[in-house]
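G., the chain you wanted modeled:
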Amino acid sequence: MSSTRLIQVGLLFAAKAMAVAASKQCVDFVLPIHVMATNNNYTMPRVDSNIEAVQWALNFSVWNAPNATERDNGPLPINDIFNISAKLCVPSVKTNKSNILQIAVQGNAWDKRYWDVQVEPEEHSYVDAAIAKGYPILMFDRIGTGKSSLPNAYYEVQAGLEVDILAQITAMASNGTLLSSVSNTTIAEPNPTHIVHVGHSFGSLLIAGLLTQHGDMSSAALLTGFLPSTHQGEVPVATFEHDFAPVHDPARFGQFGSGYIVLTSENTLQKVYFTEDSLEPALLTWTEAVKQPEAVALYASSGQAFANPGPAYGGPVQVIAGEFDYVNCNGDCKGSYTEAGIKNSTFPGASNVTVYLQPNTGHALTVAKNASAVFEMMFSYLEDFGF
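Predicted structure as tokens:
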């Protein structure tokens, strides 16, 4: 490509990014969420050093590792208020999608910045892509990440409690009370007639739990970095090296307590999230810069998400995974699933379950080279069902 053509393309991308930025309004705010829940007292090693982080990972990875039931020492009642750092972005002008609110939930080791990548945002920011299509979008830091509360990593940060928080946030969005405590904002309170839940990895699992427990809260679900497959669970957690977060980077993570672990390096992040074909070095470096700790109890508690079935979910579900997702499929997702199997086992009442594999892509779709192509598939799916 000629230098003149490169300059033209660069100016086009820059103009597109500026246009999207100019067409949205965003507000950051805090949601105090009161949770009354029953967690579990799981047996697991404590993590207060890098050495103990390795031992914890081995405890969850050896062939005879206890399962969640074997680790469970009984119920733990939780009655507490957790502060959730949230961000709402809306199109600057009313659109035909203004009544369809997207609520996005990222996976472990990320905060809400997963959805708003700042390296070539015209290609990688899901927020900007959604705004360009006319959708308002809500993101939030899950407990134990970012600017939200950092509760006890063994007893409080568990999957069931996170599903409850997601349900409360969704209810607030539906009831028009998201911004009730926010002053000095020009953004109007959303009044959605439909809510679409968008997930990545463990965030997709939490949304699947929401659909199981509160099926009447969602109109549609887009679940990325998530694929129930014949290879699921084959890659042990010890494959992905972790440090004790406050020791790994005291400046960034010194406020995190016992039981918070963090992926160690760009090499580890590449292994978890990227493929060689989808990797751009600048995006790997950005992923290292924004990575977040994880609470160890999340690894024992994932089954809690499906423990209390409620009203059946009847909307559509799009399941999206990278073709070479190492976490979900041990590196190759082709032939490892059937749509009927996923529907019957996970979303039996759904009106439609469609699986899409993004070529040459790993576990984290927003930081892959072909992110914008994934976004287009997601929006096309929603439009097929009237959203």
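The CA atoms of residues 197 and 221 lie 5 Å apart.

Shout if anything looks off.
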